Amino acid sequence: MTDPIRCTWAGMADPMYLAYHDEEWGVPVQGDDAVFERVSLEAFQSGLSWLTILRKRENFRAAFDRFSIPKVAAYTEQDVERLLADAGIIRNRAKIEAAISNARAALDLPGGLSELVWRHADPGAPVPGSMADVPAVTPGSKALAKELKKHGFKFVGPTTAYALMQAIGLVNDHIQGCVARRSR
User: Fold this and answer.
1) What is the pLDDT of residue 183?
2) Per the residue annotation, which of 17, 20, 25, 75 is the catalytic one?
3) Number of H helices, E strands in the chain
4) Annotated catalytic residue: which of 24, 50, 97, 147?
5) Marked catalytic residue, from 25, 37, 42, 162
6) How far apart are CA 39 and CA 45, in angstroms?
7) For position 14, what pLDDT does the model report?
8) Which DSSP symbol is given to 170?
9) Is 162 annotated as catalytic?
10) Would residue 77 show up in a list of annotated catalytic residues for this protein?
């Protein structure tokens, strides 16, 4: 019996990473708070391994009030200091302040964050034959990053925007034959 085909990045021995690949990555995520969580976590991941974020995700959820946009938008400097002291998350002042600023920007979006992000979905993107065929940036991710920045979002460049698009199902970048691709 042969092992199922998976995207090579999921080939790690860590069961958390494998479960994320098989059960979450590329599954459509909608709703403002749910999308805000993913925008925030992608920003915190910048420069780090996604596995680091996965291992700390529950801590992030607890520290950031389950990523409730109104609650995070109301954070004060005391909250920034609390978060900087929380060893369970990534303690980077710029990223913490960006998450708070992004929550405030999300409150002002006509139609909400989920609607804005999902306008950039690309269900017709070509099926990658291998991970070498998966881009880091696309015209769609450039447009999404530009629109988010126009509304005041931070830590949302085109590469981070594309990672978000992949993670929440705006594109399906599971390689051809991947066990998770068939279920999307």
Assistant:
1) 54
2) 20
3) 9, 0
4) 50
5) 42
6) 10
7) 85
8) S
9) no
10) no
